[in-house]
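Because discrete structure vocabularies remain unfamiliar, we turn briefly to a single example record, giving the amino acid sequence and backbone structure tokens:
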Amino acid sequence: MLPAADIAGHTRALLVAATRALAARRGPTEAELSFVEELGSTRARQGVPIEAVLGAIHVAERAIWSRARESAAACGIEDGVLLDARELYDDWAQAVRGRLIAAHRAADTGRHTAGGRDLAVLRRLLEGGSAATLAAAEAGLPAGGGLWVLVARPDDSAVEQAVRDQGPALLAHVDGLLVGVFARRPGARAVRGDGRAGLAGPAEAEELGTVRRLALAALTAAESTGRAGVVHVADVAVLAAVADRADLAAMLTDRHRAAWTALGAHAEPVASAVRAWLECGRDVTAAAERLFVHPNTVRNRVQRFADLTGIDPADPFGAMTAWWLCRTWLTPA
């Protein structure tokens, strides 16, 4: 969403220009059209669709003319005079809309053509250090910190469009991921439906390389637990840490290789039961419903896991280790 002050400022300028045009019984001047052209270009660069711009203008126009009718009636102004004013305004507005649409389309085309430039700037941002500070300045991002990094899968077009609709951002496909840098935290509607994205920040430009890694860890954690929406890394800190340590996961599975072998054909069902039980808050009934098995089956499999691994999943630290081990067992190599 754009800042209210930004919207109010442009709206006020348009109203002043329209009022002057009506008073002089003329169409828009070149200066007024230049302002409208800049407005269209600005909204395109901000990622605001032309439909949203025109829709906002339409709503404002209805409110303005509704108030004008009330004021005219109160002041005894004849309907014919008001109708003449409305016709003059419509002529003025038609010329303004034409220039607005043309400018928006031209800027939007240029914005997409500049995708390669956005990618280059984004890569420099993610390098960190002084190069990132210069890249932030080039992209028009604040130099005083407060930057956010969002990471999503590029195969989800709905997520990408929703992210672009958030407004001012630097967005590009980087190393097989959709990566965006925002000057303010993306709202809850940045990802809709079942889509998901990882988020980290705020941070200084120099730190964005690390922040991007944290956002990816948040995305991986969200995917592993089926969590949808924009997931900040702080909300899944433990899971993100686990997902980021493949070396420790390898040592953990090696430590319990004998247990996996002893379980044989029951290894995956046991691991699924333990993981479901833990993710359901140790609720046997909920885990059984999730797995479509009897609650006693869940109890037996959790006990079998504990007997063979020596890990107590009822203990807080044991639960974390058990979940990590079972997740690793169930994750394809």
Remarks:
- The chain has a mean pLDDT of 81.
